[in-house]
Amino acid sequence: MALTIGIVGLPNVGKSTLFNALTRATVVAENYPFATIEPNVGVVPLPDPRLGTLAEMFDSEKTIPATVSFVDIAGIVKGASEGEGLGNQFLANIREADAICQVTRAFADPDVVHVNGAVNPKDDIETIATELVLADIQTLEKAIPRLEKEVRGKKTEAEVLETAKGAMTVLEQGTLLSLGAAQAGLDPEILATFQLMTTKPFIYVFNVDDAGLTDEAMQAELRELVAPAEAIFLDAKFESELVELEPDEAAEMLAESGQSESGLDQLASVGFRTLGLQTFLTAGPKESRAWTIRQGWTAPQAAGVIHTDFEKGFIKAEVISFDELVEMGSIQEARAKGKMRMEGKDYVMRDGDVVEFRFNV
Ligand SMILES: Nc1ncnc2c1ncn2[C@@H]1O[C@H](COP(=O)(O)OP(=O)(O)OP(=O)(O)O)[C@@H](O)[C@H]1O
Ligand SMILES: [Mg+2]
């Protein structure tokens, strides 16, 4: 399952700096607005300490973590929908993203230009929200006449057109569809087919400085501003330095800065939660591997992520939770003690299940 997160925000707020830290890439991150023009795409392994444990237990040749793709695009300014700045064309690069990560500047450094001359997270969030709403309105303005024609020609269900019009009404009130669609009674599955920006779940990253990392009052205020969406506070510049260090050095630096988990690890786990995802694990001498699935998926659906044949020919799954396996010490011991469960096609997967699928080909 290719999971993609699009990074948006005003110019010069630290989007590329965050992207570089995430992907350990070196794309241009410079102290001037619109340093990024072409989109950058990077694939990031999801840190998962369980994999190392499994690899040791199964003597695996390698570990393969689950991944997330990040797409870093140009900054958006007020009026982008009317062509201001670089316009909003490049939003097309994140139309297919599963979630949007909005980076908002909350660091002070007067040497870094703010396009509006002052650091004001609340205003900046509103500007970006407005531009994304306007971009969606533009998309629907093009789609609705086409859908009307298709409905007349009986090529499309009337409900699709009604959903598009309903979405338009929500957007015209200035509301993000992620917040307003359910209330307006819009079918989420139909809505998803329009690939609108504001239907996607949002994750807010506040790019702070040293002081901001420990300023709980400020964090509480910003958290409230974006609720029910999740807020993450990190110093993108510091994170980009952390990833250059050896793991133990990085852990020490992190502890010194008063954080228990790096901002990047937080972003990965919040992204997972926001998208309703979970991980299951497979292990053997060849590899120990993490796989991404949605919460609520059944065993055959999970098997299908490995190979479509596994889903079609699914017989049963031999399952044990990671924690229980660790307690047992080995899969042989778990089997001997009858701790391996045989689950059928209705079994709903749980995060951290270690699985071996049985299937017919
Ligand atoms: N937490 C921080 N504290 C201080 N400076 C920072 C921080 N994060 C990023 N910067 C600096 O801000 C500047 C802009 O960063 P970056 O190029 O990543 O922004 P951007 O949002 O990608 O901009 P653009 O839209 O122009 O591509 C860089 O000089 C970077 O070093
Ligand atoms: Mg950039």
UniProtKB/TrEMBL annotation:
It comes from the Bacteria. It holds the Pfam family MMR_HSR1. Its cofactor is Mg(2+). The gene is ychF. Belongs to the TRAFAC class OBG-HflX-like GTPase superfamily. OBG GTPase family. YchF/OLA1 subfamily. HAMAP family: YchF_OLA1_ATPase. This is Ribosome-binding ATPase YchF. ATP binds at N12, V13, G14, K15, S16, T17. Residues 3-254 form the OBG-type G domain. SUPFAM superfamilies: P-loop containing nucleoside triphosphate hydrolases, TGS-like. ATPase that binds to both the 70S ribosome and the 50S ribosomal subunit in a nucleotide-independent manner. The keyword Lipid metabolism does not apply. Keywords: ATP-binding, Coiled coil, Magnesium, Metal-binding, Nucleotide-binding. Residues 137-164 form a coiled coil. Residues 276-359 form the TGS domain. Gene3D superfamilies: 3.10.20.30, P-loop containing nucleotide triphosphate hydrolases, TGS-like domain.
